[in-house]
Amino acid sequence: MDTPRQTTVQERRRRRWIVPILALFLACFAMLWFFSVKFINARLHRDDDYLTAKARELDFEENQIRLFVKDNVGKEAYEGALRGALGTLWSGAGNELDRALLFQALLERSRLSCRLVHGKVWGVEVREGQTYRYAGPDLAADPEAQPVADLAPVSHILEAVLRTTPNAGAPIEEKMEFRIADLIGKDLTLSYRIEDGQAHAVLQGSSVALASKVDAKTAMRQELVFRFRGPGGYAAERVRELFSAEYKDFPSLFDLSNRHTFVLTAGWIPDAVFLKETELAQDWPDHEAALRHTLAYAFLARSDSHARELREHLKATAFFTAPRLTDIATEYHEEGGKKTRSVSIDLRKNDLRVDGDAEARVAFGSARSLFDASLEAAVLTEFTGESAVSSMDLLADAMARRQATLAQRQSLLQRSLKRLFDEAREGATLSVAPEGKETYTVIFTREKDGLRVEVSEDLRKGLTAAGGGQDWVLGRPKFAPGEIEKAAQETEVALALSAKMPMRYEQVYNYTEVPTDHWYENARFFSYYEKRLCFEFQNLTINPDRKVEVVDYYDDVGKQWFDSPRRAALHFAKENLEHARIYTNWYNTHPDQTIDGISRDAYLELKEKGSTVLRCRFHDGSLSEPIRLQISDRYEATILLNNRPFKHRRLALFGNYDRLVTDKMTLEEIAKLPPIKDADGAEINNFSIIDDPEFPIRCNFERVQSAIPGRVTDAETGHGVPEARVTVLGPNTAALSWADGRFSISGIKEPFREFEVAIEAPGYKPARVKIDFLKADAFPLALKLEAAPLAPKDAFVKIDRQNAPSVLPGVKLGARAKALISEALRTNETLAVMVPTFEVCGTYGSMDAWYEIDTKTGECYGRLSDGLYGSTNSPYWAQHKTISYFSGRIAAWYLFAAGAMDGVAENIQHPEMTLDDLYRHASKTAHELAKIYDGYWFDKLGGQVADMGAFKKGLEHGLAWADDFYKKAWGVK
User: Which residue has the higher pLDDT, 84 or 498?
Assistant: First the structure.
């Protein structure tokens, strides 16, 4: 037994260890608490982040929370629980129930026990002890309020159905349900996984998942069916095809790597939410999932921002009364043994409720859908770094006959190379490069025995990096006419591989001609006064005799412009050109003289001895005393030859009367002698000549034209118009433009004046323009052509529910496209489908594309045979501005239709209205509605998504067409 003293010592020893053990325990607990909290916070739902942050901002104080919801969360009228707490907070508005749910969630984040109640209004009660007190948010008290435990009867529900059609047998449906409010801020995803050699689709939503039991690898078709239902009888269905192997005209898009992110929203998405979601997604380990999530919120935030601005501009009311469904997909496909990825935005459900008169609703719907269609491609390009295209792009390009397909590029290049051969202008070059990447260039040069090919350094390096071989035409220095097709094909391959270009892109051409050694032969030499042509001469021949035509537009002696040009033809025999000892700068034909230059003998004497003695004939025909001229300088000068800078060698001559000049005098001493001047005040003892023994002519001209250069461009795009015929009427001389739109007109013999120039090109409206050729800035001729889009009545076949059975089978569409149109018409009775009669070209050639127009809302969406209501990112497609001329035409149709509908409504109220009255009402309404596009909202778009000048022109033309159409249709005189 221990003694008392022993016990005390042992107790002291035990106590000594208690403190460090307790400290260690507390430290471990603190670390465990720290990491647990961090782990829990990392797993908090986004609604916890947003809602807790808002509650914290309101100091977790009940009254501040109530005032926030009461005064700052707007009231909107729709049925049932749609947005939930998070969606209502994001949107800044909601109905009674959703506002109450937001109020409840913020109170719960403030650690207040509360419950949802319903009486006169939806509200929240806060627990105080054993009882509950009504807290709001709107009424101070609600004695009729009763607690509500189950929101299912008043909630909007999504039934997600995975429908798979096996090779044999009926489709198999597997489904799961969600409350829409529970999906706000949480992505619904679809992916594939392999089990026992089979591919199973997995639909993951929040904390629940649905794994298909059907093998997708052997299935004929698989799609997601979204069935929406809500209080008040609301119901809608949207189908998103995942893949289909049942159409011969369309390949199956099944790939195990395919992923879909479905984002359900039910209210506005502000920029702050997009920024927060982007920040959160940066930490996701799955980078593709993060990209899809970011794309969705970027698109939704920007779309909503402009929709709200448009709503204010139109003074209309617009808000969501049903769920919105956005699908962002990353899908893969094999391309030449290489797997490539496409990213797409698909607006599966994007409707708003718009309150206001009929025309305001249609105007809002058309403008919003046009903007969304443009925004898709812009957002995809921004976040993926790759080009994007939509059906709107393809249809707009096709209708404006502005396409850039492989076949079109090849045809143009082959024609251009053949022309380069046939015209046989040695030294002429044609270069081709991708638009935006002009350093990747292939250059063709015409030589005596064929075309020489060169490639830029960037292109050669790009080919090496891409693994492109050199055993092709581009690897050889020259090729013959029989190899044109091969050269064009391999040029296309070289550009695509080296510059990593899409299959659908624009090429930039540049045609140039190298001046010949006798560049002055058959050329016109111009001098200008006050930026206007005052004098010219043209060398008709220079060997063996020189024949010259001179034209004076200005009287140098009298200092005035002639009423009509003075023309003269001069002839100088070979003998004079060779040996004359007299020169003049006035056009007269005396024997033993040259004009505007010196003889070849005098030139050779200058070169050999350094000086020569000549006489000058003055304006009145008298001769000067002998003048000793010396070479004072040898230099290189630049003039404009056919409006391009051209360098040539010159000799500067200087001297004075021979009797005054001695061999010992320097140029400085000679310069002190009085100058020798002609009647016009020009010094005849101080001038320059061309350093050429064949043509030592004086250089008193500003430009030389052996032909009139110019360029024809597309008025909308600025691109060169190939094969445009340009005719100068009067002289009736013409030229054909090259692939870059450049042309060169030769053969104008008569004096210059104001000429009318006619321009014609395939796919463009013919144009005529008057140009004053006397003006110094007239050249090069800058000519523009407007595309000639097809007239709407010739461009589309309209299909609706009524005529679909008889019309749809006859349109030029594939089986898949017809099936998609039939499905769209089945699910929307107010839909009209516009099928183009013109060719629409996509990646590799013609493809199916059409418009779906909701005649009730004015919304319009283009569709392709991929089934998307949106844009696709792809390395084989290029982007264009969707809001363009074509969009203006589309908008005009809607606006006039809105005016017509409003006119019918007026007629119901006023039966005395005639068809003339209806027409005038429709026309006035349409033109008034068109003013929405002149306001702040559309004008600020610009840049990447919109060409407002072209859009407004299309709107103007569309209104004019619709005006004429309704006038004829209604028999209005």
Answer: 84
